[in-house]
Amino acid sequence: MFRLLHHLRTTLWPVPVACVLSGVALSYATVAIDDGNLLPIALTGGPDAALAILGTVAASMITLTGIVLTIVLVVVQLAMG
């Protein structure tokens, strides 16, 4: 048993196989969720709601990118001198 565990820890293939298997399982799960009517029609929203949500996500991503770039520049400046 110890040899099997040691072999699994030292080889490269278990991680990609686990990722592939979890991807297959997630694909089946998302298809099952999509096929089932789990949400009432009032909660799904329309095109305007989707546009508002995507606009908010885009604005927050731009803000996050600006903050990350600012922090990186400050770190580089502090490292230089």
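^ that was protein a. below is b, sequence first then the tokens
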Amino acid sequence: MDPSTKLVFDSPLLRVHHDGRVERFYGTETTLPGFDAVTRVSSKDVVVNGATGVFARLYIPDHLLTAEHKKVPILVYFHGGGFVVDSAVSPAYHRYLNSVASKAGVLAVSVNYRLAPEHPLPAAYDDSWAALSGAADPWLSGHGDTSRVFLAGDSGGANIVHNIAIMAGARGGLPSGVSLAGAILLHPMFSGKEPIDGESRETREMTEKLWLLISPGSTEGLDDPRLNPMADERRACRTWYAGSCLFARPREITTRGQGPRRTTRR
């Protein structure tokens, strides 16, 4: 059999061949930055790390560029896709961030972190941490309040938000003097060895295989504390930042104040 046709991972999201070739079936379309006439938001791409190619797309409501305003909050967003598909420059996320920046009146930073399996964890965490220095970009620092930075993300991006917050607590804050005011986790990618909420065996098996693809060096499997926040509650209690958190999953939205969070995994 031709080694290039042998599969080591197969799912509706992507297929990984034995020779390392990756086929993605979702989230491969991209769109350019610029001025959006509907939302009147301007965007541009800035390089985070020239060596890795990681960049972020910055969004700013047009009126902030042409008039004197008080500085507004900054939203740093991490796209979803289970760490393996999609990007910050997909049409869906581009439209979404244009809309959020316009309606919320914030400056937005959408991070295009590297994907697994080509770049397994902790690459996405490291890229996302480094991208927070983008909040100090002159385009943002001139109009954005770096003392009011909010992290947000969905799916794998929400997992990044959680782990960045943990890292911030452990390291005494965020890079570049950025202050973390709060976090928004939208149906975060969490799991664990103990099944809950009628989770099917098929779903758990696929999640376990996906996590092994994302983080082949993990020894805890689904109870890796990066995936299961409750696997090491002392870690979460000790390092979680002091801010506010919005946690959302399908059909439910809950808000949390300070202190450790016991969240339901997806």
